[in-house]
Every structure is written in C-alpha cells, then in structure tokens.
Amino acid sequence: MDSMLKNNYRWVVVVLLLFATTINYLDRQLIGLLKPILEKEFSWTETDFAKIVMAFTAAYAIGLLISGRIIDKIGSKLGYAIAITIWSIAGIFHAFTRGVTGFATARLGLGLGEAGNFPAAMKTVAEWFPQKERALATGIFNAGTSFGVILSLFIVPIILQYAGWQEVFWITGSFGFIWLIFWWKFYEIPEKQKRLSKEEYKYIRQDNDNIVLDNTLAIKWSRLFKFRQTWAYITGKGLIDPIYWFFLFWLPSYFSTTFQLDLKKPSYELMIIYTATTVGSIFGGYFSSYLVRKGWETIKARKFALLIFAVLELTIILAQFAKGPWMAVGLLSIAVAAHQAWAANVFTLASDLFPSQVVSSVVGIGGMAGAIGGILFPIFIGSVLDSYKAAGNINAGYNLIFTICGCTYLIALLIIHLLTRNKVKINLEEIQ
After folding, report:
1. pLDDT for 3-56, tens place per residue?
2. Which of 344, 363, 338, 303 lies closest to 142 in space, CA to CA?
3. How far is CA 430 from the centre of its chain?
4. Which residue among 98, 203, 327, 359 is least enclosed by CB atoms within 10 Å?
5. For residues 127 and 75, what is the distance between their CA atoms, to the nearest angstrom?
6. Which CATH code for domain 2-199+217-423?
7. Global model pTM greater than 0.85
8. Of 420, 411, 282, 259, residue with least CA distance to 340
C-alpha cells in the first residue's frame, strides 16, 4: 500500500484540491439557500439581496486578478493556505452580521478569499502533473464545483432542523480550517515532497516544461497581456463562465415557472442536473488526456475536445421543445455536463500555453474576465426575462437565452483557435 501511494502521490494532491474546491462552492452557495430565511428576518428587498450578491461578484473579480499574481510569487502551498483562511473567516463572519451592510462586507471577504482557489489549484496541477494528465487532474478537482452545490442542498436543511442560520455559517466555515490541517501536513511541491518516489518524480517532470524554479524570479506580469495566448484564455473564460452562473442561479426558477416545480421540497430534477456536471468535468478532463496519451499534440487534443463539447452544448437549444420536466432534465444534464467538460479543458489551457511560474497569474486574469461576465450577463438575463414576463410569455425569454448559450461555445472556440493557431507555448524568457 505504501509503495502504491508513493508512486501515485500526485493523486493524493488532486484529492486535496477536490475537497478545497468543494468547500469553496459550498460556502458561496449558502447565501442563496438561506435567502428566504434572511429576507424574512431582516426585511430585505430584492434590491438589497442583489447588492449583497454584487458585493461578492465584484470582490471575486478583483481577487482573481490579485491572487494569481500573489500565488505565483509566494508559491502554491502558502498561497492556498492564505486563501482558504481568508474565505473561511469571512464565511464564519456571516453569523455575526446584521443587515445589508454587514452581509455585503462578509461577502466581500468571501469573494476575495475564494478567488484564490482556482489560481492555486491550477498552479498545483502544473507543478504535479505531466501534460498528458493535467486535463484529467483538472477535471477531477473541478468536479468540486458540483459537489459543493449538491452538498449544500443536503447539509443546510439538516443543520436548520437542529439549529439556526447562524450555525450554518459556523459549521460550514470551519470546514476550511479542517482542510488546512491536511493541506499543511501532506502538501509540498514535488522537489520538497519526501513522500514522493524517485520514479514518480521523474514521471511528473517528463515534459521538462513544468520544473518549478525560484518564485522570486522577476516575472513581468503586465507582459502577459501582449500574448495572444492570454487573450485566448480570457476568451474561453470570459464568454463561457457566465453561462455556468446562469445554470446555477436560474435553472431552479426555470423549472418553477415552466414546469411548476415546488422548490420548497427536495428537487431530484435539479440534483440530477447538478450531478451531471460532476460526470462532465471528470470525463472532459479524461478525454483530452486520453488523446494526448495516444500521441496527439497537446493543444490539438484540447481543441478537439473543446469542439466536441461545444457541439454537445447545442442540445440546450432543444430544451424549448421539451414536453415535460424529465425531458428538460435530460437535455439540460447534457448541456451542463458539456459545460464542465469544456471548463476542465479551458482551465488546462493555462498550463499548456504558459510555464508554471505564471499559471496562477494567467488563471487569475481569465477568472476575472469570467467574473466580469458574471456581473454583466445576469443584467442581460434579467432584462430579457422581465420583458417577456411583461408580455405574458416568460418561457420565450428562457428559449432565447438557451439559444444564445448554446451558440456561444462554438464562437469562443473559433476565437481560441485563431489566437493559438501558430505559436503556442510561451517560454519563461519571453515574459521576464
């Protein structure tokens, strides 16, 4: 058993990343699930709640830009530890707040801290995996975005049966500190990890492109914006990330208005859909990694995978023809699974296109673009749905949004391809 662990220690690292990402999405989902209780207790209006949500999104966007740069400087171990400490403290702080200003402040702290998760996780993957396994590793830890949502649907009602909403924040906020103990004990970069065998270290470093150098090297962060590869990654995140926010926050409302789903009861329809995101994330990472292992050029394998999943995403357009809720569940499950499969491969592009010393910075830049889109796209969605609702046909509004979402993936892929069709990999010397 010990020998097997020594030769596969990189997968222990992925499990740590999976749990961190699960906690990340669990903590961010709580405010939405507790919304009816908090609105009643504090007499919030919809505008009040919107301000609280916007506080998180704005802080998340800024945090992504800052945290990527910081993590590249101080390293993945310390960077991740600081990020989860900040967001866990902010999560617990919710229990002490009263009113809109207090909750908005707590969400600001949560957004700033949670922004460090993906830059740190992707840097860790770049440090610990050869190119042919990076997409699979990314797909596994990215499944935590789905696990966190599903876990929140189970754990919040259980806590509320025995305690109040304050205890929800207390208990879930402590999860991050528990994770931190395991992270500090079991994680080091490969060069310092004593539990790592020589054989696995050689396997990890087989590409000779992910060797972790001194983090104090002078990296000209601003130079990243001059590369087409950076803009390719920004495109993949900026155009597509907002769609996932739509899936998270509007699908319950869609099922409620279209199929009269009672959201006060356990929603097996939504549980199935969000479970499908887990399958898509892991399979999406496995698929392109499989192609690389079969001899495909890395970037070609990623683009082919993105093409397959972009085509599958077109199934969301067919949702407007669904005659019943379970037909819609089937079509939307394919769509959300395809999205997560796409996301796993786009995340991996950062480590495919850039050296590990700047991966966190690139991921942060792309994540910020996605967060900005996550602010703007809901404004568009709200405007469309309000217009069609006023006309007495809100379902037509959802159909229009589904069509836009389905087509956006192919547009994003075309832009990514045009920006990376010639020179692909950026050398460290070009950035310094």
Report:
1. 555 578 999 999 999 999 999 999 988 887 787 788 788 887 767 777 787 788
2. 344
3. 29
4. 98
5. 10
6. 1.20.1250.20
7. no
8. 282
